[in-house]
């Protein structure tokens, strides 16, 4: 019997055997088969007084996506040795990573512990929150790598490797069709999917698509009562495609509607900065700690080009900015940004006081509508960190309401008629 004819007889048997898996995927990673290492392969350690090695490793594999471990050594990695749990390893279906702050990391897998393959869409990725990465390949080891130095800040909170015992599988999926983006699968907040199929058994596999970003919310503004010169109005913002909504019965802290901007993360308020030093992250600007600490946000330089920026989903009426900076003489400047044009809307001169490490101030606004708020610093002194004196900020919270509900930029005048 020639080879082609033999395959014609064999194919139905392969399809019948591979149409369904005999076992469901499950979490196959655990603390007991994992270790923490430096980039040179020596034993590593977590940073921060609260993180002993045992506590940190337990945190990474306890199934809870809450508190993250601290790590400030770039190149450090967690190695999950699947071969210790099952000789020959597992068919790894996906890897799920949870992070507390936006960090840069990479995922790799290996069948021999020597040659490493980067997981698709997970090499040098900058992400925050719970992310799932499709593997669908055999592996004896999986490696999670911190790509950059983070500082004494919480980073990863969970590492989950999902897999199947190869002996319990049907078709081994020797080849696949090309990945194809599936139209219509993206939602307001979630990216679409790519799909490919095993060419033998037809089983379909999916992964997050980089070609189909989230749609973003289709914001609709409702003004139920206009603001006057003496009282705020009311209104709301909602999405025409999903159930997202925000009510503005009073001006609200706009950081409650978002946070630090991240790839494919859809939120009404996006916080970003021009630059930041490794020991601090932008998230510290909105963590509600108004006292100056060493890890507060500082830029790379003391240049006026450095900035803190908030981008809102739609134009809002800005009502107030509550902020704190390091206690030294400087000027904090606030701008409305439209394209390449910056318009200064306020500035606050800070004069060093005799006590305290920080100063907290508020700025009130009337008749100011904007979608992008930028904060710059005129500072000839800077914040003392690591032998440098860059600009920095301890905390900032912009408040606002739906457009038209802010205070009017007029004052009532009493007119006496004789």
Poorly predicted regions: 1-22
Q: Which class best fits the helix and strand makeup? A: mainly beta
Reading the helices and strands in chain order gives HEEHEHEEEEEEEEEEEEEEEEEEEEEE
- Beta-strand fraction estimate: 35-45%
The main pleated sheet reads as:
9 strands, mixed
By CATH's scheme, which homologous superfamily of the largest domain applies?
Galactose-binding domain-like
Number of strands: 25
CATH topology of the largest domain: Jelly Rolls
N→C terminal distance: 117 Å
Radius of gyration: 27 Å
> Which CATH-level-2 architecture of the largest domain?
Sandwich
**Fraction of residues in helices?**
under 10%
Q: What is the topology?
A:
Layout: H1 3-18, E1 26-27, E2 34-37, H2 53-60, E3 77-81, H3 82-85, E4 90-110, E5 117-118, E6 125-139, E7 141-146, E8 156-164, E9 180-181, E10 193-197, E11 204-208, E12 219-225, E13 234-239, E14 245-248, E15 252-253, E16 258-260, E17 269-273, E18 297-298, E19 308-326, E20 330-338, E21 341-350, E22 358-364, E23 369-378, E24 392-393, E25 395-402
Parallel strand pairs: 16-17
Antiparallel strand pairs: 1-8, 2-3, 3-7, 4-5, 4-6, 4-7, 4-8, 9-10, 10-11, 12-13, 13-14, 15-25, 17-19, 18-24, 19-22, 19-23, 19-25, 20-21, 20-23
């Amino acid at each position: 019997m020639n080879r082609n004819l033999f395959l014609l007889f064999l194919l139905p048997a392969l399809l019948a055997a591979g149409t369904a898996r005999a076992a469901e995927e499950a979490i196959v990673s655990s603390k007991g088969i994992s270790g923490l290492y430096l980039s040179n392969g020596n034993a590593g350690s977590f940073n921060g007084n609260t993180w002993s090695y045992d506590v940190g490793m337990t945190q990474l594999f306890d199934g809870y996506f809450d508190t993250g471990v601290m790590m400030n050594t770039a190149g450090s990695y967690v190695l999950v040795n699947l071969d210790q749990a099952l000789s020959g390893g597992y068919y790894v279906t996906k890897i799920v990573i949870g992070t507390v702050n936006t960090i840069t990391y990479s995922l790799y897998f290996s069948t021999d512990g020597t040659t490493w393959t980067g997981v698709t869409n997970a090499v040098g990725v900058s992400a925050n929150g719970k992310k799932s990465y499709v593997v669908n390949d055999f592996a004896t080891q999986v490696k999670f790598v911190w790509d950059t130095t983070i500082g004494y800040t919480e980073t990863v909170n969970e590492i989950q490797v999902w897999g199947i015992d190869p002996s319990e599988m049907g078709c081994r999926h020797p080849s696949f069709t090309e990945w194809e983006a599936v139209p219509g699968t993206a939602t307001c907040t979630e990216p679409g999917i790519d799909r490919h199929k095993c060419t033998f058994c037809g089983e379909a596999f999916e992964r997050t698509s980089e070609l189909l970003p989230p749609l973003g919310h289709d914001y609709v503004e409702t003004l139920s009562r206009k603001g006057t010169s003496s009282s705020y109005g009311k209104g709301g913002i909602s999405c025409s495609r999903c159930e997202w909504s925000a009510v503005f019965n009073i001006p609200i802290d706009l950081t409650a509607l978002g946070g630090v901007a991240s790839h494919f993360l859809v939120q009404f308020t996006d916080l970003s900065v021009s630059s930041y030093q490794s020991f601090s992250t932008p998230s510290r600007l909105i963590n509600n700690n108004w006292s100056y600490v060493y890890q507060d946000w500082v830029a790379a330089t003391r240049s006026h080009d450095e900035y803190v920026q908030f981008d809102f989903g739609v134009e809002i009426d800005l009502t107030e900015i509550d902020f704190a900076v390091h206690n030294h003489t400087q000027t904090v400047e606030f701008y409305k940004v439209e394209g390449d044009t910056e318009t200064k809307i306020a500035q606050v001169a800070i004069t060093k006081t005799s006590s305290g490490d920080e100063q907290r101030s508020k700025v009130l606004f009337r008749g100011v509508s904007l979608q992008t708020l930028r904060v710059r610093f005129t500072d000839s002194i800077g914040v003392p960190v690591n032998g440098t004196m860059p600009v920095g900020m301890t905390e900032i919270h912009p408040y606002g309401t739906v457009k038209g509900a802010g205070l009017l930029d007029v004052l009532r005048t009493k007119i006496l008629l004789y």
